[in-house]
Known about the structure:
The model has no long low-confidence stretch (mean pLDDT about 95). With about 170 residues, the protein is of the alpha+beta class. It has a single domain (about 10-160), classed as Peptide deformylase (Peptide Deformylase). The chain starts with about 25 loop residues before the first helix and ends in a 7-residue tail after the last helix. The radius of gyration is 15 Å and the shape is globular. The protein has helices at about 25-40, 125-140, 160, and strands at about 45-50, 60, 70-80, 85-90, 95-105, 105-110, 120-125, 155. The chain binds nickel (II) ion (NI). Nickel (II) ion binds next to helix 2.
Amino acid sequence: xxxxxxxxxxxxxxxxxxxxxxxxxxxxxxxxxxxxxxxxxxxxxxxxxxxxxxxxxxxxxxxxxxxxxxxxxxxxxxxxxxxxxxxxxxxxxxxxxxxxxxxxxxxxxxxxxxxxxxxxxxxxxxxxxxxxxxxxxxxxxxxxxxxxxxxxxxxxxxxxxxxxxxxx
Length: 168
Ligand code: NI
């Protein structure tokens, strides 16, 4: 496995609509392994394939909890959303910034796992936020596109972000 450089704005790959994955082969497994390693290296909660320059509908998430397992999402889709809340968000592809956005309180996601088996995840809190954030990446959307107001975007230093939520 290898750590891959993370693409940042204005890299056009972040703006492409990612393609559906037709099935899992060794190259997809390798990509997912590299994405997980890259996510850990960057201390991110999640990472989407376009962030490593690959326009495919794949994302990985790992909650910042002890012994949390990685969640691998192939072709994920949000099938249900409920509630609304205002929260701060960051993104590894927008380094040095944080902004306020609206996210659902809970979401249900349909996806395929590493064996291409269909899975459903119902989540709230941080996991719901991460799922929405990563799935948006696959549509070419970043949180800075839907800030509650332009002036809610602020500069943050690496030290500020250490204990803060950073979806990816
Ligand atoms: Ni992101």
